[in-house]
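Lecture notes, unit on protein representations.

Consider one protein chain, 267 amino acids long.
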Amino acid sequence: MQSGEGEPCQKKEIMLQPNPYQGKLIVVEGIDGSGKSTQIDLLYKWLQSRGKSVYFSEWNSSDLVKSTTKLAKKEHMFTPTTFSTLQATDFADRWENRILPMLKAGVIVLADRYAFTAFARDVARGVDPDWVRNLYSFAVMPDIVYYFQVPLDVAVERITASRANIKFYEAGMDLGLSDNRITSFRLFQQRVIDQYDQMVAEFGLTVIDGAMKVKDQQKKVRQIATRKLTGWEGLPNPNVRVRRKRVTQPALAQAGMVPAVQSGGER
């Protein structure tokens, strides 16, 4: 695929073009147990409190294919390719009917997982990376992609502490890596980590240490978002009143907007 030493391969030239829309697209990525969902929830609330219009979208949430996905997972019917294709359909539906209209309207879209999840998981399942990238070529490159990088042991501890069972496909049980679900989870998620780590350079992902304290992670997340949004005018949030500086009557009069009130006169 390389056309010459130091030159990007063709797929990197044509995939995920820059965001041309008025709105901003901010994405969080990472393996299960990385803490990304906590961080995007905190960012969402913070942006709203600052008077921004914010829309949230999460992976695998389209009503169009929800019943099919649920059935296929329950019956363990997916192959790596059919799983990849259905997830892309889910994403395409949300992109066309939710994400894209919001970006065109000037809204900040926060996405808990984006195309990079497919680039990591599907390739970890053995699907061709060029083929997967081509499936998502209609989407744009986010303005910020936070990749919450966390040691596998930390992720496993978080997952096992928060729920009784690890899901079949989450553990990569469909790949036959191990009969033990936790062992399979470790092996599969390490494959996913390897793909994410390769994408840091390919797509310019912003790495956040997912092992830091939640407040320290959020501080860094907000700093990066603030730099990106400085000077940007998006759609205001009509439900949030932005505090404005009180303008006095003399100041208005000085600006020629109202006549000055004479001393002793009526107002």
